[in-house]
Amino acid sequence: MMTHERLAKDILTAVGGPENVERATHCATRLRLVLKDEGKVDKEAVEALDKVAGSVFSGGQYQIIIGLGVPQLHKAFLVAMGTPETDKVTGGEKQETNLFNQFFKVIVSIMTPTFGVMAAAGILKGLLALLLAGGILKEADGAYQIWHAISEAFFYYLPVWVGFNASKVFGGNPFVGAALGAALVYPDILNLQTAGEALTFFGIPIVLVNYTQSLFPAMLSSFVAVAIEKFFAKRLNETISWMFTPFLTFFIAAPLAFLVLGPVMSWLSNTLATIVMTIYGISPILFGIIGGAFWQLVVIFGLHYAFVPILINNTFNLGQDPLNAVFSVTVTALAGAAIGFALKSKNPKNKSLGYSVGLTGLVGITEPIIYSVALPYRRQFIYAMISGGIAGAIQGINQAVAYAFGGGGLMAFPLFIAPDGNMKSFYSFLLASIVAFFGPIVLNVIFGTGEDKQ
């Protein structure tokens, strides 16, 4: 059986060696490589390797689909490159001229480390709302208070985590970014904002905004702070730089964050949420059909992370998100396609494959299904698109919303329980999920798996 170390070395050889890799990161199932010269990649050799489910060039990256073992492979890959302590190759990075690709890569790098914890916190919030609604727990109970604290803390202090990761990605001291994020949600400042009191900075009025659960203000503040930090780090003697570079960065960046960067990004966040909701409001049913049918095509091209800021922004600015309510059912549709494929197939290997990736899909990971079943047997993709479109329409008709950010599959159900215990969106998601899952199974029984037309 191929080890992660052996696989990492084989991939590294097939992509042109360490000298051709500028950055190596990963998401839930993909090893994501930023390369100097994509023409040096032997794509066929990569895809022929054991444990590789496929690969795609997208978003300025070469993305290799591995599955749930990708974190271990990523570590082995960094060791193979000779850089186990970092995800960058010594020598700096090539400047990407495509602004979309630049933004895409930054968002992926900053937010990816938080996704698992963010989903866990969202699930816990939903479960607590269910326990309250069912009378199993009360708000005064110690058990509720402890679980509520950890589930709320992650979202409340999101600017701290964003500031830390952003500064790290931009090449600065991550604790400077974390401190700026913490300043944005500092209790005394929040109390002034809540009380509606006026505050000035040497006579300049400060627009006080509640930055808890915000994404973009801390991100932009960290970007500016890193630029300031690098400026002073180059000019101060190293004997005093370790202390005075952070001091001068704080001295300049903190006022900028409160006077300009935070309010501007907060306004942009609210505007983005308003625009998205306006588009959705034109026809929730049409959006549900299109989103439910075609969302997984976006996943194929690896561009789904470009939507993450929009989904998170909706969740935190509006307290709910109808987009992810539709996208979530596509996960269940693909899982149903894989299970239906396994049930109907007469090939023992395909049966085992369908069941294994189908179960993976039920916990929210669809890429193994896409590259091992849905694309090789394209009829399965069509079944999933049809069922996903119908399920998405159900979500649109009911105007279902997710109250927290997370993935799809079985673990998404708690995300649809309102903080006040309202179960309308939960029941809608339950009905949509049943349709999405069993639709492809029925289609497999009626029309077959398509194995003869692979």
Automatic annotation (TrEMBL):
Lineage top rank: taxon: Bacteria
Membrane-topology descriptor: Multi-pass membrane protein
Location(s), subcellular: Cell membrane
Keyword Transferase part of the UniProt annotation: yes
PTS EIIB type-1 domain: residues covered: 5-87
InterPro entries in UniProt: Glu_permease_IIB (IPR036878), PTrfase_EIIB_Cys (IPR018113), PTS_EIIC (IPR003352), PTS_EIIC_1 (IPR013013), PTS_IIB_1 (IPR001996), PTS_Sugar-Specific_Components (IPR050558)
Main location: membrane
Transmembrane segments: 115-137, 143-162, 169-186, 198-228, 240-261, 267-287, 324-343, 355-375, 426-447
Pfam family, one: PTS_EIIC
Active site (catalytic residues): C27 (phosphocysteine intermediate)
Start and end residues of each PTS EIIC type-1 domain: 105-454
Swiss-Prot/TrEMBL keywords: Cell membrane, Kinase, Membrane, Phosphotransferase system, Sugar transport, Transferase, Transmembrane, Transmembrane helix, Transport
Protein name: PTS system beta-glucosides-specific IIC component
Species assigned in the record: Streptococcus rupicaprae
